[in-house]
Design goal:
Strand order of the largest sheet: 3-10-7-9-5-4
Largest sheet: 6 strands, antiparallel
Shape: elongated
Number of helices: 6
Number of strands: 11
Structural class: alpha+beta
Order of helices and strands: EEEHEEEEEEHHHHEHE
Strand content: 15-25%
Distance between the termini: 14 Å
Radius of gyration: 21 Å
């Protein structure tokens, strides 16, 4: 991507095939030529791909433009994660998009920040709590008959017993997989390179920057106005595929 601030080269991961096919198609069709980096947050990320940004007036609210379709989430985790330079797909929030499907065109590149072991431990704790809730609800949904039976007769002891048995299964499963924990490589990258670990498992990472991280950093630190839009327009002048 040739930008107003310099060139950024990304490689696409072969495993995230749906995102890659879509991204390559848009690049080859010239879709990204002229779009703005419309949302920029220092120490976090730079975002582009809104088609409305090509003709947007100064100060106009951006971020809602799309292609009229979404792409199913492709989480290849923990292999690919939100380290500095990660290329990921933007998306609508969980309330309207519980499946975490990606935008058909908007993407962001992680600039991020570094984290201490203590901070990473805290994130793991939150991840564990989220996983516990998700697994608990999943099991409850399969045992609704029992739940309703005990609720109807107001058998509180049996409801507590059922809850405890489900929690036991959940905790055993979590401790067996420990999927809420960062791998040694993730922990090293987040401590040294930096990134945005709280986005892992929430947004599809489908590539990474291999040249131009300094350009990403420069863009992330520009002066911004309302809604984190750069005061001075920063364009993707031209995007092309290099094989």
């Amino acid at each position: 991507m040739e930008t107003s601030y310099g060139n950024i080269t990304v490689k696409l991961y072969s495993e995230t095939i749906k995102h890659n096919v879509n991204f390559v198609k848009l690049v080859n069709n010239g879709f990204y030529n002229g779009v703005l980096f419309h949302r920029v947050i220092a120490g976090f990320m730079i975002q582009a791909g809104d088609p409305d940004s090509k003709t947007a007036k100064a100060g106009a609210l951006l971020g809602s433009g799309d292609m009229g379709y979404t792409i199913p989430a492709e989480f290849i985790y923990p292999k690919y994660y939100h380290k500095r330079g990660a290329l990921a797909a933007a998306r609508e929030g969980d309330e309207s998009n519980p499946s975490k499907a990606s935008s058909g065109c908007q993407f962001y590149i992680v600039e991020g920040k570094t984290f201490s072991d203590y901070a990473l431990d805290s994130i793991e704790t939150v991840n564990k709590e989220k996983l516990e809730l998700k697994l608990f609800q999943k099991i409850v949904n399969t045992r609704q008959g029992e739940v309703k039976k005990y609720q109807v007769v107001r058998n509180q002891p049996k409801l507590v017993e059922l809850q405890d048995s489900i929690l036991k299964v959940v905790n055993e499963d979590i401790e067996k997989t420990k999927s809420y924990k960062f791998t040694a490589q993730q922990r090293a990258d987040y401590k040294v390179l930096g990134g945005t670990p709280h986005l892992d498992g929430e947004y599809t990472v489908f590539g990474e920057v291999i040249e131009g991280l300094d350009i990403v950093e420069r863009i992330s630190n520009v002066k911004t106005g309302s809604n984190n839009r750069p005061v001075e327009d920063i364009k993707v002048i031209k995007a092309e595929i290099i094989k």
